[in-house]
Write a structure and sequence with these properties.
Distance between the termini: 22 Å
Number of helices: 1
CATH class of the largest domain: Mainly Beta
Largest sheet: 10 strands, mixed
Order of helices and strands: EEEEEEEEEEEEEEEHEE
Oligomer: single chain
Shape: elongated
Radius of gyration: 20 Å
CATH topology of the largest domain: Immunoglobulin-like
Number of domains: 2
CATH architecture of the largest domain: Sandwich
Length: about 220
Amino acid sequence: MKHIFFLILSALAFSFCQTAEPAKKRSFECYVRYLEPEAQIHVEATMREGDTTLQPIQPEGNILYQGKEMKLLTTPNITYRLDKPGRFDAQHVFSWKDVKGNTTQFEMQLSPVQQFGFGSKQLSRQKAATLTWEGEPLSKGETMVFLWENAALGKTIPMEIISTGSQPSVEFPASKVAQLDPGTWTYYLVRKKLTKADINGIAASGIIEYYTQSDTVEVK
């Protein structure tokens, strides 16, 4: 089943509107994508600096992810990347040094989605369904995206659901199920989280996406 990737830094449209000040402003943007089926991690990071318009720059030292140096790319813009196999860690730490040699860190956290399912291999287009999983419930800044694929019909349907409940589950309204034609559907989940922080005057933001294994249900 093909994955649909939502975000990478090279495709993100970050817009900054700031008043000119003597001291240059800096921002840090990062993206982490984990593919559970392949146990593969993809990471990107960009540092920006400027007065009124922030431009990608190379910081004084390299940018590290989980203590490992990222690869510097200069085309089309200055960015750092890292691809590696491995298990998923709930905590993700980016770090770099300033001109004085002091280390700055930006941390993000995301709980993985373990075993999941609707409790039945059949869904009714006239009834709501509840998906549950092993792991933490969705927290602030998190969303769950369902990617549905029907090979026979040649259809792929993404659905995003936000939950504010205290349980590791999301309610799937009947109106959403009704968007799926009768037949066999394969789906997987993408748990997404946006994290923002001000770190010593640096506006830091990052997105983590966790892509699960796939499952199959019959829609009637």
